[in-house]
Amino acid sequence: MQSETLEAEIAKLGNLGLSELRAFWADRLGKYPVLASTELTRRWLAWELQAAARGGLDTGTRRRLRQLALLTMSNAASDALSNSRVRPGTVLTREWAETTHRVVALECGFSWNGQTWSSLSEIALRITGTRWSGPRFFGLKRRKG
Questions:
Q1: 16-25: pLDDT as tens digits
Q2: pLDDT tens digits for 14-70?
């Protein structure tokens, strides 16, 4: 496909609704993903048209993106699991350097010293000055082994 034809085809996408975009996708590229957003469908379709015409991402880039996606998903799952064990309203107490620290679990984060924090690990770092697993510092997880 020539560059002018590709640009004209992508420009046409701006005037199409969701059902028209899906029909266009099916006609030009075959099976389409089911997306509810017209704008996302339009952008993805434009990328797919360009990739079909110009070759898409190289193997190394695709591999790196897969690695990053897996890492992101595993970190998100890990964070969700560690934070889901603490119900909002739970008070966690830890004594450190002769000071008792109380942390209150909130719907979205934790309250300590009058501030809201997104993770227990951030609070543990502020208390100790060194990196800790926040759930382990507050006794929610035991060290493996």
A1: 999 999 999 9
A2: 999 999 999 999 998 888 777 778 888 899 899 889 988 888 888 888 888 888 888
Q: What is the mean pLDDT of residues 116-135?
A: 94
Sorted by where each begins, the domain ranges of the chain are 3-54, 91-137
The region, left, alpha or beta by phi > 0 then psi within -120 to 50, assigned to residue 48 is: alpha
Strand order across the beta sheet in which 109-112 lies: 91-96, 99-106, 109-112, 115-117
| DSSP states along 59-119 | HHHHHHHHHHHHHHHHHHHHHHHHHHTS-TT-EEEEEETTEEEEEEEETTEEEETTEEES-
Nearest Cα to 94, choosing from 57, 133, 42, 56? 133
